[in-house]
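Step 1: inspect the first sequence and its tokens.
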Amino acid sequence: MAGSCCGSTRVVPRLDPAPCNALTQAAAGLLVPRAEVAGIAPGGAVSATRSVDVDVQAPAAGVCPETWTVGARLTPVSGEAFGADANLQAAASGTWVATSAQVVLPEAGTYALSADFYSHINATTPWAVAINARLFNVTAGAPVPGTNRRIQFGNINDPGGGTVMSLQNAGSLRTFLTVTGPTTVRVEGLRQYVGFNDSTQAVLAGPRLDFVKVSD
């Protein structure tokens, strides 16, 4: 709107009162938008549903100009489980045996999985027995791809025979797994009788499984 008085001209801006505009016209004058940031207070609780937590520190009341302090920290969900020794000898050769080393991946995302254990075989020579280990996706009812590993193989061909021999070996598994929701994963072991005499004792011992979320 334009007008004139005593030979002068003044211009009053016309404002669109839409709420998303930069300025708002009110009875008290022009209102300038003010941003307020919300988040977890510094050192606050870590959420189990996020990989990154944001800290927000507001300025003191009445400070001008206002300075907001925003920080972030990585807080990936993680977990670990220890299981009891698994008796592989009690199952038929070639049968996978579940251990109690089991974790629950709590949410959708990609996880780094790591497992370690050791295997133990007792047998009377000559003998040939192998032990494998893998990770099993209990929720999907399927092995975790690429995790089937030969942990130990003993091929003792003693011409005299009759000697009891024991072998132990440490093993580990590492992989990445992407899931769409909460998922249970466990360690499994298998004894494979491949020739000569079968074992008299086969164990996947001290199983441990951990996870760390690496991306959403």
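Step 2: inspect the second sequence and its tokens, then contrast the two.
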Amino acid sequence: MKKYSLQLTLTFLLLLLINTSFYWEGDLGILAFPVFFILFIIYFILSIEFIRQVYISFRDKFVDKPRNILLLYMSLCLILITIKPNGLINFDQLEGEDRIIAHAEGVANCTSRLKLKDRGKFTFESVCFGFEKSKGEYKIIKDTVYFTKTTRNSFHPKFAIIDIAADEIIIYNNKNDKNPMHLSIINK
């Protein structure tokens, strides 16, 4: 198996990175797109290498046992990545059911999404020339959402108002915020 260690290692690393991306993708910011592009290139190269190894195995009538193991391993991993490109486990569902999801689209196709989970946790995702994800905890008192323990970069709001009549959540960074963020509620 030593002669196939590069293929095995790259395939394993690709599978590992794809399946754990839920935890690290939000920390990359503007580097998210280049990193995912590199992962796609590695996937493409491994797919070509898989086809090459299949050809060699057919030519040699599948007599090389380490190559057969490599083919089995690579085919399993590449098929799993193709079928489940976001990973085998839906980590978002493990954090609880979505209580409220609010979404906004800005200029240059930038988007923001707030998910309030039923266990008192929230996730805020912003995609605009990069990907940022903030997590934390919240409490709802009447029509106001109070955010606590925000764990990421630029998203540090103090509170938000749920406007049921307008079907939106208005996020304020502080009491004097003159330009709050308006997110349309897409499910309740």
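Step 3: confirm your contrast with the notes below.
The CA atoms of residues 128 and 163 lie 26 Å apart. The two ends are 53 Å apart (CA to CA).
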